[in-house]
Amino acid sequence: LVRGCNPAPGAWTTLGGKVEHSLARTFQQLAAEDGDALSSVFARLFVWDVDMRRDLQSGDAVALVWRMGSDGFPEVAAGSLRVGRQGRTLAAYRWQAPGDPYPSYWYLDGMEVPHRLKESPLAQYEQITSLLKDRPSHRGMDFKVPVDTEVMSPRAGVVTRANWNWAANGNCIEIRYEDGVLAKFLHLNENRVAEGERVSAGQVIALSGNTGRSTAPHLHYQLDRGEKALDPIDYHGSLRRQLDEAQIAALRADVADIERTLGEYLGSE
């Protein structure tokens, strides 16, 4: 039911198999000790279009090309998921669009796989690595971004506090937007505003970091109304970018070999 192997460090490999019970269990069979990490990365690719609890079922098929990165986290060049309940196969390819500082994941029709947050606190970032709905204990949205990337206030407001609960939050800032919502920016490397200061929409308020309870450089962005955590996607809205015809042609040419490999793995199941 499953095929594949764990790659040597830095080497790309392909694995694939049928879903058994859950995505996590499937990848534990596919990749042994790397299975949990791979399952998380793979789910992140398709969470925008597939409800992994509701839509995924035994007999669906997965395939991906991956390697272990120098930071100890899996890097996925491409992933494919056949969803029987939806009657379709999704295939996402890592590709750097012209003018972008980082690669993203794209469908072959030129649609970007992940949504992008409107009124984002970051002009550029590598990847959204965690959403509010991922787990009950996580109350915000995480962006993978290098240390010292400029962080902006998405909306106008007043800084209500800074650097509280440093052991968990690291350098941090809280801003009350004009509608009363409290926005929290955690794990910063440098704060550039002080408590009581009024900020405007788009103003740089900090530099991102890896402080507090953080295992890798990222920005945690959280929205609270009273005791309730708000989903930034619902609050700000989101969008998906679309490549033009020339960019689609370049994408398809660059990933043609990987596309064939994934097709062979899914077709053999």
Distance between the first and last residues' Cα: 7 Å
Number of helices: 6
Most strands sheet: 10 strands, antiparallel
Shape: globular
Assess the beta-strand content as a share of residues.
25-35%
The radius of gyration computed from the alpha-carbon positions, rounded to a whole number of angstroms, is 20 Å
Order of SSEs, N→C? Answer: EEHHEEEEEEEEEHEEEEEEHEHH
Extract low-pLDDT stretches. 1-9
What does the secondary structure layout of this molecule look like, with pairings?
Elements: E1 2-3, E2 13-18, H1 23-31, H2 35-46, E3 61-68, E4 74-83, E5 88-95, E6 104-106, E7 116-117, E8 127-130, E9 140-144, E10 150-152, E11 157-162, H3 166-169, E12 171-177, E13 182-191, E14 198-199, E15 204-208, E16 218-225, E17 228-230, H4 232-236, E18 238-239, H5 245-254, H6 256-267
Antiparallel strand pairs: 1-2, 2-3, 3-4, 4-5, 5-6, 7-18, 8-9, 9-16, 10-15, 11-12, 11-14, 12-13, 13-15, 13-16, 16-17
